[in-house]
Give the backbone structure.
Amino acid sequence: MRARFPGFLIVIMLLLVPLALGQDGNSVIEPYDEMMVNPDVNISFPPPVYVVRDSIDIRGTVNLPNILSFFVEFRPLVVDMMDSDVQAEEPWSPATQPQRSSVVDGILGTWNTMMARDGLHELRLNINSGDGPQYVRLSPIRVENNPPSFVEETIQTEVEEPPDPTVEPEPVEEALDDSPRVVAQVNSNVRSGDNTLYPVVGFLLEGKIAKVLGTSSRGTSWYFIELDNGVRGFIHPNIVRAEGDLSNLDLVAPPPLPPTPIPIPTAIPVVAPPAAPASGPNLVFGPIRMDPHPATCNETYTIHVTVQNNGNGDAGGFSVEVRDSRMGTGAGQATTQIGYPPVPAGQSRSAFGRITQNQHYEELHHVNLFLDIHNQVAETNEGDNHGATAAYVLRRGRC
């Protein structure tokens, strides 16, 4: 006799199925909320966890009312994020030129990553509007201009079959190459900007050809080219021969000029340093921090400077001079001097000074620091007392 499955058991099983499914409700992962991204202020490219090198276009949107200017800046990312004090001391450096008009899903600027050391960084969109400053941060971004030696590019080549000697080849008409290009007249440097102050990023040997992508937007006539290995940079027009159609070249904005030493004013007496002793103190700069950063026109800011004695002898009292001026020209210089007490060997001292900058707002400024300005300390190395810098775009404020 065939057994029959009771119908009421089927009903009970159907009732238990949704209850069993409901037990796993806490494991459901909600989808990412795209509304978390502000459609009016954002960086859309590069995305987080992205590797960049050479020059890269940063894309996004800045579309706010009462916008005065904006730019993108960067700084190294401290891996140990539990140490927030160390991260806060890392200064921001400009990655792009300031812009004053809105951008919607377009290019916010071009970042020459050669200005950054290899490793993890974070980007920040710095917006100055009538409603006050606003920021959009993005991290991590990995800069890798010098990849490890074990990373090799795979070069694929095509193997062509030899022609049939019994078949007469058809005549080939040579197409006229009208693409813009330059031919090196001598062995030439390719630089990251349109000035010999910029670092060299590549070389174009005599007789070699490079593709022309544009010319400098500053009107210097330097060509923006691409080498065979993909490196892009600027080359002087007087050392190359231009060929092809150059009538519709794009204007390419070079990155900010690198910091240049500012001449010491004649009003400051400079004492010739004595001959460096074989042993004794050696003063070098430690962490530097501006507060606030960036500064605002006609408002005093504080700069905190740490000095380390890396020598094997004690250092007596000395001074650090701080100079804030417009980048490249040194115009509108504001200065202050910070006094330091003696620093024993192997120890450091921190002090601060105050500066009020009231010229060249909404332009890039450099803060240059000069250690032991009056040569009060006879050091084992007098050549490492200068060059510590910070950079920022001066906000308009009350100017």
About this structure: The longest helix spans residues 7-22.
